[in-house]
Amino acid sequence: MLSLILQGCDGGENNANPVGYFTDIGVANVDSDTGKIIKINDLQGIVMDGNIIMMSMSHKIVYDGIITNISGNYFTADFIIFVEGKNPTTATANGIIIEGSKIEGRLMGSGIGNGTFSLFSMPNEQVDISNAINELQEILDGDQN
Prior knowledge:
Structural class: mainly beta
Largest sheet: 8 strands, antiparallel, barrel
CATH topology: Lipocalin
Distance between the termini: 28 Å
Order of helices and strands: EEEEEEEEEEH
Radius of gyration: 15 Å
Number of domains: 1
CATH class: Mainly Beta
Number of strands: 10
Helix content: under 10%
Strand order of the largest sheet: 2-3-4-5-6-7-8-9
Strand content: over 45%
């Protein structure tokens, strides 16, 4: 079993440090290609070494990002977005980190790359992330049928 122990840590120079696992109770409201809003209610994420990966199993969407800047509690990031492992699109994001609690942001792109998201953390908990990694691989592999 693969697990990760999350600990609160100092972000250095008064910058937030969002490292950790963010549970699958996160939410997002993003645009669809048909002009309707897609409401995601199972968004989860992993943030580590300047990378941020968010995913929804129910919508088979992966947001693969790099945090480009953290200043205080505010961040910017660049994302490549996949649906069922295909059709990558890009978006930039900015938002706020409430350390030990959540990350909220605004995606600025087109389609599923445009909207808002909120991730919720499980601070100071031991978390089994093997399921999250398996789910990520399933989405990236796409529909194999």
